[in-house]
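Continuing the batch. This is chain 6 of the set; chains 1 through 5 are on the previous pages. Same settings as before, nothing changed between runs. Recording input and output for traceability.
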Amino acid sequence: MSASAFYPIGIPGQPWGEAEKQQWRARQRKLRSYEEEVVAGIEALRGDFDVHVYGELDYAPDHYALYAVRSRAWNEGLPTALVTGGVHGYETSGVQGALQFLREAAREYAGRANLLVVPCVSPWGYERIHRWNPNAIDPNRSFRADSPAGESAALWSLVSPIRQRVRLHIDLHETTDTDESEFRPALAARDGKPFEPDGIPDGFYLVGDSENPQLDFQRAVVAAVAGVTHIAPADARGLIIGSPVVAPGVIEYPVKRLGLCAGITDAVYTTTTEVYPDSANATPAECNAAQVAAIRASLDYALAQG
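Output for chain 6:
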């Protein structure tokens, strides 16, 4: 099945050049405001947390400041937890769930953990409800020291000084119907490969690190989220998005080798959440609450291990 059957840019079988990327970029439109929906929420937290700009992105004519929120009473003797959202800007509950956690629950961990929360790694993608950055690069395949993605490079630099001291990293994502209708076809077209259709799992699931599975940790997070929203079942082949289910609601990837955000530290406990916002059985508020439940369960488990 050729990419041309699904995507209007490029020649089937040929990777995109700069002309095709420019054509793709010209199709993208701002659909919401990073300043109004994200930055304003971050600024409102300054009374209880340290807020700072850790990088900037210049995508003319747009300019974006990148924000991180830290525990005010940072204590090097405490374990450190990293929470990231919006690596894929279109995955709304990752961003809004991180902000909701900061508003509603983060204060409970004062004196127990150092929190570093980056609610929106990819503001250009957030505004355009897109997976890529304007250079048609997926930030979540680009986390390395020489990253071609400005979003990934900025987060890499932020985390580098504490990489070996992070105990927990939870990266908040969604799997949406547009993964199948837009983003996977676009990826196939960009790379000059055939598009191979797959299904979208209905429900929440986690992606663990196949090189450091920590299945008891993953199970604890799934159990907590099950009280908020439904967990995605395996398909008839025992898979979720093409990967074997290793525990209910859990699949695994080699996160560091793939350049995924979840591999950006040396944390013992890492996981990537995947919420399904297009389910007939879930609301936006429920999706945000599922992300908050996952963060809290991750923290509670990691801190209980001593």
